[in-house]
Structure formats: structure tokens, C-alpha cells
Amino acid sequence: MNDVLRTAKSCRHYAMCKIDFLGTGLCKSGAEKHYVSFYPQGRMDLYAALAENRIPVTEKCVEIAESCDLCGKCDYQCYFVTEMKPSVVMKALKEHIRLHLENGWEVLTAEKDSILDGLKEIVGDYWATSDRAVALTYSHDPCPVAEARMPEYVIMPCATAEISAVITLLNKHKIPYAVRGNGSSVMGFVMSEGAVIDLGRMKTIDFDEKNWLVKVGAGVAAFDLQKAAAMRGFRVNIAEPSALVCANIMCSGIFSTFSASYGTAADNYIDAEFVGHDGGMFRMSDKSAPNLFAFRKEDSAVPGICSSAYIRLHPVTSDEGAAFVPFESLEPALDFARECAMRRIGLAIGVLGGEYISVFLSPTKKLAAEVKVTFRDKLKIEYLVLVIGDKYALSAIQQMGYHYFDNRMIRTLNLGLPSLTSAKWLDLMDELANEEPFSYLGLKRFPDLAEAALAPSPAQLVRDVDPELRPFFEKLYARPEMTDPVWLNTFRIVSSRMGREKHVVAMIIYLPIDNTLITEINSEFKRIADSYGLKNDYGFITPLDNGKRCVFEYDYYLDHNDPDERTKMQQAMMEAGMMIERYSAETGTVTWIRYVFCQGFSRKESFLYSGAGADK
Amino acid sequence: MTGTKTADDEKHLLTGATGFLGSHIMAGLLSQGKGVVIAGRSSGGESLKERIGRLLTWFGIEHLEGLLEFYETDFLKRRLGLGEDEYETLCGRGLSIIHCASDTSFAEKNRARVMKSNVESLTEILNFAHKSRTRCFHFMSTAYAAGIDSIECPEALVNSAHFTNVYEESKAHAENIVYGRCREGEIPYTILRPSIVYGNSVTGRSLRFNALYYPIRSLQLIRDIYLDDIKNNYGRKSAECGIYMNEDGALHLPIRIFMPHDGTINLIPVDYFTETILSILEKPETETFYHITGNNPERMARLVSYTERFLNIHGIEVVIGTSSAEEMRNPPEELFDHFIKAFRPYISDKRVFMRENTDRATSGALPPDLSYEIFQRCMAFAVSADWGKRFNVLRP
Ligand SMILES: Cc1cc2nc3c(=O)[nH]c(=O)nc-3n(C[C@H](O)[C@H](O)[C@H](O)COP(=O)(O)OP(=O)(O)OC[C@H]3O[C@@H](n4cnc5c(N)ncnc54)[C@H](O)[C@@H]3O)c2cc1C
Ligand SMILES: NC(=O)c1ccc[n+]([C@@H]2O[C@H](COP(=O)([O-])OP(=O)(O)OC[C@H]3O[C@@H](n4cnc5c(N)ncnc54)[C@H](OP(=O)(O)O)[C@@H]3O)[C@@H](O)[C@H]2O)c1
Ligand code: SF4
Question: How far apart are CA A268 and CA A271, in angstroms?
Fold first, then answer.
């Protein structure tokens, strides 16, 4: 496989090129034409399929290739997340089509189709298609347990009434369909051999500040909503920035570090509008509406299409800051996180492991690997508990006797990461740690010394970045928000880096913050992945419901293009699943997220506490 | 000297041989042609024998390995973790015992571990000493087991109620146990109390770089941070705290070292330590405490001037008084103050250690004064060994 094809096939489908998270502006054609096919992600898939002769050149193929003006924005975005530069693929795609046309080879046009005509009548001519090039970009994701499925139709409605009419028509013709947000759930949920309904055009955002809510259309991405909310001085609870908000509630209920105080699942919204599978519309607050607040422990299907949701707004104070409290092992970190949650200290709480910390902070894989070792071996930091809160919360943590990295120290550390990995003076910290761990963080002037020692600067941080992109990244890291832990947690633009080295499969469970149970399950996750030779690591834990429960993510990684790793991952996932089920049965307190998928609108209490119905 | 076996009545059973002082005692005994039975543990994937092998190479006495016997032991287990037969046979040999193993952490957070290693483990070791009718049980303690209650410290059991740290407390506790059990069980014993041991005064070599070395290493690393800043970042951060290059090429690094009161630091070189121990072992007076200490303890002012000269810095000042975070002049001063917190009691020490017993055993041989030449030799060796990071012989 040549490098261009490898890049094309390595797209992780995290949809980060569908949001303007770096302020570069979006891929112009994508923003205009909305189909994923016109975004860098779609072009990567399309090029791979053309290069491997899996689809013919179609009309849309030509349009997709020609609408790319090689501006290069996708390089910045994609490099930020995966260290890939998709523009080489964009060039190759354009070249492929140019040669095809130059040679006068056939360009396939879509055949006449009465169902398609009917769909076009509902959504407008441009917004329904059966073109194979477009279909291809909706046909697969890197999920190791999902088979690719080519849809007959891709439809992009832009109003609830249109969705309703589309569903009625599809039902009439018995055409199965899948509902798609940005497809970044990457679990094979958004494919269908019938139709894919892409909701990406439904981008309305209407604030009702009096009622502390914002009504969002099904096509609004988390990042865009957070941006709009922040401009008005609010915050919303979101997770991945590229996830569409309605999709994310449906899928996983949205859990983030802020879930420690904002909650999850039904806590996130006030009301929502739906189109049922019969094409009928309902609002969740209708007395006669289907009860989506309830939860059943079963694999379920999407209960309808959410066309808009009324999302809760949260207040933000001007004195918010972050504390990263270091720990040498998991158990004291859990104790601290639980205590904060119980005492309602802080808004966001997350027990992070070395993998996340190093990967999120580092602009390259190489640096991330070095930083991970430095944190563990030199700073003796195995876990960091992140707490975001106002000045009272932060001073409470100090009063509890914990030393922490504050905003300033995090900025210093982040911009000075390369010198951190080579810093001899860390040996001193190492020795101090033996006596009184992390006590240096309590020194008033330590931040000054750290600044002298690390000489933090954007230039230093990006010194290993691809030379072509380096000037851009240097400017990027000079922006204060790029090293502000509160902003980074609010907008979450670095978390998709967890899939930078390889695609990530997250194993997620809800359970009590019981140190023994968590340590046991943590080692079981590790044992299973190790036995298949898969890269794996602890992800994060966030307390829920005042620390009575938590959400725990453990990550398995695979090269999704390697058939051998796919097979191993399938087996590992099955074994891990069985392990979770066993703990679930034994404890009665462990819930696998698998059952929450498609029931994310339910009340968290109904799946956190089995007595409340999770087992019914 | 050849590595042939010697008779059991010449042999010693030694614990802690994988440590700084224990290894020097081992090397000293081997060099006298005496057999040593090593009781210790494997670590980091290396067997006890492999660990000792590396130490023999460091001492340049690999050819004496034949004088050694190895027993992998666990002092917290019954029969020291040995098999019944093995234990009985070892007991039957009536060896002299030098118990040098000890957890040397000062940290309160390690209290449980320190107490376990230094106090609890004595039960089985003393059972062994009793059962084997040892010729003599030599217990390696520390001069600082004296505690901080009195200035004058005799070579005798002290009942101090106050200590600087858990390590001292555990050693005092251990002395009491040894004293009590040995008297009760009629086990001949000595208690050996060195002060702070640094490298070899003649060669500068050392295996450990804590105590005397730690503050100098801290200052070197702090110095290098600001030298880097001056070289690579126009000295911006240095200027903020009054740090600059002097015309003579030395770095002006204004750091005050706070000491609660005037005092000294009692240091001895490891060659003197070893010679003294060997003399005591030669003709031990039982039921005797030995202070293996210096007669002319160092003043901080002198160490500071040595350090400045060695590191090519100026501006270090000794200040009598207590410090507070607010008073700290600059970040390096605050950090250094933090670094030396654990050592502060030892650098402004007023205690005087009597040493008649040691004088008798060594015919009055005293440790050499710490001259700049000795200091320089020891520190240069430490730098060349990257303060133990490079060629760490004690750890695999
Ligand atoms: C790197 C990474 C990290 C992640 N971290 C988190 C995290 O911390 N917290 C978290 O909560 N999630 C997390 N996720 C999961 C992911 O963000 C969610 O699954 C989210 O739903 C994806 O949004 P999407 O718009 O791409 O949804 P899609 O993948 O398009 O759809 C997800 C599901 O929702 C259905 N759906 C989509 N839109 C609608 C609608 N309007 N009405 C009804 N059903 C609909 C789809 O059919 C599908 O079943 C992570 C994912 C990745 C890749
Ligand atoms: N160095 C000084 O300046 C100084 C001054 C006064 C008194 N002393 C005393 O001298 C003795 C040796 O000190 P040192 O500087 O040589 O210390 P060291 O280098 O730290 O060595 C300690 C030794 O004790 C062993 N040990 C520690 N804990 C043990 C346990 N739980 N079980 C079995 N073995 C254990 C170690 O074995 P492993 O290698 O297997 O860990 C090592 O061999 C100690 O009793 C100390 O109190 C030292
Ligand atoms: S290079 Fe092409 S695909 Fe990439 S962002 Fe620019 S227009 Fe979009």
C-alpha cells in the first residue's frame, strides 16, 4: 500500500474535519454541500475506494473531487488529531478524476428511480441521492465488529416535517433506514443497506436564556453549540466536539468530566422533539408521548428520530480554574475524586491516567510517548485528578491538603513538554517524591522555577511538528485557550487524539466508586487485551450522582486496516463483554454502556441503579 | 589473596551487603581473607548472587567471590524464610552476625515500611542469633538513634523520646530491642553507631549519593537551570531573581540556607568507617556501644565555600534563623530550602558524640578532616557517576 492510500484508509471517522475547531474555517465544499462526501473524511474514503477499484467514477465523484480547492485546511485539522495530512489524498483524488475525464472514460449517472424522485420531492433535488460515490462515504466505519453496508439512498432533510415525510415514504416502500449524525460513534450504528438519513443540515440554535435552555436542531455539533453558549456566558454539557448533540444524547447520553455536576442522559435536556418510526411526531413532554425516560437492560434500536432538543444551559463564573491533583496510584486518586463529588466540590471531575494526559497535551505521537514515560518515571505521576471549579472549589482542595498543578503550571508544563522529557532537574523531584510526593507543587515560587527550567513556548512545543505545518501550530499554541485546561475541557478539542496512534475502542461501564471493584475490573480489562497483544490503557473515571456511581472508560486500540488486529479485537471485545456481564450479575451495580446506546434519553437513575429498573 | 574457604570461626554472617555500608564491610572482610555468609534478597530480576557479583566488580575483588556464601532470606518470615534443614545447618555454625540491613528512608509516609524493616524484622534475626549461639551479634545502628533530647550523647543506650524522623525513631527502638533480647538471651552483642558516611576520602568513590551529596547535587541542578536560561533565553528568568553571570565566569546564585541555630554536621568517609568496623570486629568488646563519628564536625560555612568553589557559583549564604515561604527571596532559594528540609537537623547539629569505646578499639585513629581536596574528589566522582544515575551498582 502506498502512503497516500494508507493515509486515505487510516481516516478514523471522528468527524473533526466537520467542525471549525482550530479557527481555520471549514472545508468550503463541506460547509456548502453538507454530505460527508464533500468533507475531507468523505474524500479519504472515496479515494481509497477508487484506488482499490471498489466503485466506478460517478457524477458525484467528479463534483466531490472538483469542489476541493486544495486549500490545505484539512491538513491542520487532521494533523492536530491524527498527525496525518489528508491533502495528499485530496490531490490524488483530483488527479484520479482528471485522468479519468481526460481519457474520456465513462462517468456513471444515477439511474431513474421513482423512490428517489419521491425523496427529492420532499427534501429538494440536491438533498437525496443514490449516487454510489456518496453512498460509499456512508457505507462503513472503522468499527472492528461492523460490516460495511452500501445504502441505496442518502437523504439530508432539514426540517421535522421533512423527516416525517421521508420516514412515511421509506415505510411505504419497506426500506430500512439508519439515522446518522456525524457518524463518529464508530460502532457500526449508522449504516443501512436501505437509506441513511443524514441530519447534518438541521443546524438551528435558538437560545431561551430566560428559561436556561437552548433549542438545537439535530444537525448541531457539540463544538458549535458550546461556542454559541460560551459567547452568551453559558456552558452546555457536551462530550466529543464533533458529535451532534442530539445524536450524542441518543447514543451515550453524553458523559463528560462535567457530568460530575451537570449529570448525564436525561439531565442534559429539558424536552425534545421526535419523529417516530411511524412518521408521527411527538414531544417528550407530551403526556401521551412514548416513555423515553425509561430504560431497559437490552440491546435496543433508536426509538425515533430526534429532530431537536431543548438543552440545559449552565452558569459560568469568571473565577473558574483547574486543579490537576497528582497521584502515585489509582486508589487514592479515586478516594479524592469521590470525596470531591460527595462534597460537591468542583464542576468537572475526571481521574485521568498517563495515556490521556500525555496524548492530550502533546502535538505528536513521539512527544506523547516520551511525556508518558516522564510523568510516570520521573514525576511519579500515574494518575491526575482533574477538577474544574470556581475559586472556592479550588481553595477547598488546598484546604483538603492536596497539592496540584493549576492553570499556570499546566500551561508551563504543556508549552515546555519537550524540555520536560529531557530535564535533569526532574531527578530531584523524583527523590523528593520519595519523601513527600508532589510537595514541590505547594511551593509558592515553584511555577517561576518551572518556567525558568522548562522555558515554555509555542515554538518549543511544536519543534517536532511537520515543518510545513509548524508555523501554523506555533501560532495556534500561542493562543491562550490552547493551553487553558478550562477551555480545553469545555470544548474537548484534544480528546480525539486518543485515537491518534491507532483507532480506539472504548469499553465503558457505570459502577460504584468502589476501589477494589474498579481495580479488579481495570486489571481484567488489561489482562484480556494483553492476552491478545492489543495496545490498551486505562482511560478515565468521572464520578456521577455525588460520587455514588461513576463512569469508567478503559480503551483498547487497533489498526483498523489490519485484519489480524481486527480479529483479535473482536475476540477481546467479546471476552471483555462477558467479563462485564459477570461483574454485572455478581454485583448488581455494574451497567455496561452497551445497553444505554439508543436509550440515552432515559433518566440516569434508571441505569445507574439496578433497583430502579435496569434489570427489569 | 585467594578465594578459598576459611573456617566458620573466622566468618561473619552479614545482612545489608547489597547496601552502601554493608558492601564496604563485605569488601573489607574479604580483603582480609575472611569468609562472609551473605543473607539478603534478590531485586529487580537479579538474584542475590548476581547483585553481589556486580558489587565485587565495582570493588575490583571478583577473585574473592569464593569466600562468599549466599542465602536468599526474608527477615519477616519464620526461620528467615529458609528451609528447615538449611536453617538448622546455618544455626549450627555459630557464626558472628553483622546486621546491617535497614530501611534508610526518613519519610513519615513510609513509617509502616520502616518500622517493619527495622524493628519487626529483628524478632527472627534475634531468634537466629540466639539459636545459633552467635559469637557476637553486631547491630548497625546510627549515632542519631540518640534522639534530640540531649546534647551530650554517650556510647550507651539512650532513652530519648524525641527524634528528627521515623528512621531515627526506628533505630532507637531497635537498639532497645537488641539490648533487651541480647541481655535476656545472653547473646554477646555490640551496637555500632556511625554518623553520616560519605565516599572514600582517598579515591573519592562512593556507591550512594545521598546525605552530603544531595544538597550539592540540588544546587548543581538549580545552577544548570539558570545557566541554560542565560544561554538560551537571554537570562530573562534569571534577571527576575537577581541571578547573573559574574565577570569571573561564576554564576551569582543568591540563595540563603536557613539553619535554626548554629551547629555542625558530623561526617566520616567510608574508608574510615570500614577500617573502624574491621577493628571492632577484630576484638569486639561485647555489650558495648561504638560511636563511629568525627571528632571535628564540619561547619556549614566551610561546606558552602567548598560547594561554591566546586560548582563555580557565588551568593550562597548561611543564615541562622527560621524561614517562611513569604521571606523566600527567589524560586531557587525556596526550592533549595524545601530540598534540604529533611537534612536540616543534621547540618545544624549541636550533639556531641562521645567515642571512648571507638578510640579504644581503633587506638585513637580519627577520620581525616574534610579538606577541599577530599570534597572535590568525592564530588567529582559523584558527577562522573551522574549522582548514581549512571552505573548504579546498588540497583540493577
Ligand atoms: C474519540 C471518541 C471519544 C468519545 N468520547 C465520548 C465521551 O466522552 N462521552 C460520550 O458521551 N461519548 C463519547 N464518544 C461517543 C460519540 O461521541 C457519541 O457516540 C456521539 O453520538 C457521536 O455523535 P455523532 O453525531 O457522530 O453520532 P452518530 O455516530 O452519527 O450516531 C450515533 C447514534 O445515534 C443515532 N442518532 C444520530 N442522530 C440521531 C437523532 N437525531 N435521533 C435519533 N438517533 C440519532 C444513530 O443512529 C446512532 O445510533 C466518543 C467517540 C469518540 C470517537
Ligand atoms: N549511610 C550512612 O551514612 C549511615 C549512617 C549511619 C548509619 N547507617 C546505618 O548503616 C546501615 C546501612 O546503611 P546504608 O547506607 O548502607 O543503607 P543502604 O545503602 O540503603 O542499604 C540498606 C541495606 O539494607 C537492606 N534492606 C533494607 N530493607 C530491607 C528489608 N526489609 N529486608 C531485607 N533487607 C533490607 C537493603 O537490601 P536491598 O538492597 O535488597 O534493598 C540494603 O542491603 C543501616 O543500618 C543504616 O541505618 C548508615
Ligand atoms: S484541502 Fe480540500 S478537503 Fe481539505 S479542507 Fe481544503 S477544500 Fe476541504
Answer: 9
Give contacts of B224 with chain A, Cβ < 8 Å.
Answer: 424-425
Torsion, CA A469, CA A474, CA A476, CA A482, rounded to 10: 130
Q: How confident is the model at residue A433 (pLDDT cuts 50, 70, 90)?
A: low
Q: Do A455 and B106 touch (CB under 8 A)?
A: no
Q: Do the domain assignments include residue B388?
A: no
- Where do the structural domains in chain A lie, given as residue ranges? 3-102, 321-595
Residue B373, SS3? Answer: helix
In a domain, B381, yes or no: no
pLDDT at B345 over 50: yes
Q: Shortest Cα distance from B332 to chain A (angstroms)?
A: 7
Report the pLDDT value the prediction gives residue A1, as an integer from 0 to 100.
Answer: 72
Give pLDDT, residue B162: 92
In the prediction, which pLDDT does B2 show?
A: 43
Same structural domain for residues B74 and B221? no
Residue B107, min C-alpha distance to chain A (Å): 5
Number of structural domains in chain B: 2
CATH of the domain at B65: 3.40.50.720
Which residues does A contribute to its contact with B (CB < 8 Å)?
424-425, 427-428, 431-432, 434-437, 439-440, 443-446, 448-449, 451-453, 455
Question: What integer pLDDT is reported at residue B391 of this predicted model?
Answer: 65
pTM here is 0.88
- Strand locations in chain B, DSSP E? 12-15, 36-40, 68-72, 96-99, 137-140, 152-153, 189-194, 196-198, 244-245, 251-259, 264-265, 267-269, 288-292, 298-299, 313-320, 352-353
Which among B225, B240, B342 has the least Cβ separation from residue A435? B342
| R_g over Cα of chain A | 24
Q: Are the CB atoms for B340 and B218 separated by under 8 Å? A: yes
* Cα(A184) to centroid(ligand 1), Å: 6
**pLDDT-derived band at A196, boundaries 50, 70, 90:** very high
In a domain, B129, yes or no: yes
Domain range enclosing B321: 213-263+299-347
**Shared domain check, B187 and B108:** yes
Which atom of ligand 3 is nearest the CA belonging to A67? 7
Element (H, E) at A401: none
A335–chain B nearest CA distance, Å: 17
Q: Are residues B122 and B150 in the same domain?
A: yes
- Is B95 domain-assigned? yes
- Say if residue B147 is in the same domain as residue B247: no
Best residue for ligand 1 mutational test, from A140, A154, A184, A503 (most atoms within 8 Å of Cβ): A184
Q: Are residues B67 and B180 in the same domain?
A: yes
The shortest C-alpha distance from B230 to chain A (Å) reads 10
Residues with a CB atom less than 6 Å from ligand 2: B 16, 18-22, 40-41, 43, 75, 100-104, 117, 140, 142, 171, 194, 196-197, 208, 211
Domain A321-595 belongs to what architecture? 3-Layer(aba) Sandwich (3.40)
For B246-294, the pLDDT digits (tens) are: 999 999 999 999 988 888 999 999 999 999 999 999 999 999 999 999 9
B118 and B243 in a single domain? The answer is no
Neighbours of A562 (CB within 10 A): 13
pLDDT of A161: 97
Interface test mutation site (partner A, options B165, B251, B334, max chain A beta carbons within 10 A)? B334
* Gyration radius of chain B over CA positions: 22
Q: Which amino acid is at A152?
A: E
Ligand 3 binding pocket, CB closer than 6 Å: A 27-29, 40, 43, 68-74, 86-87, 90
Give yes or no: residues B53 and B81 share one domain: yes
Tell me, yes or no, whether B91 and B225 share the same domain: no
Nearest to B106 among A435, A439, A445 (CB): A435
Percent of chain B with pLDDT over 90: 80
Which residues, in sequence order, are bridge partners of residue A274? A282, A306
Statement: residue A424 has pLDDT above 90? no
Q: What is the pLDDT of residue A421?
A: 85
Q: Which chain A residue has the Cα nearest residue B388? A: A427
Gap between the Cα atoms of B250 and B70, Å rounded: 51
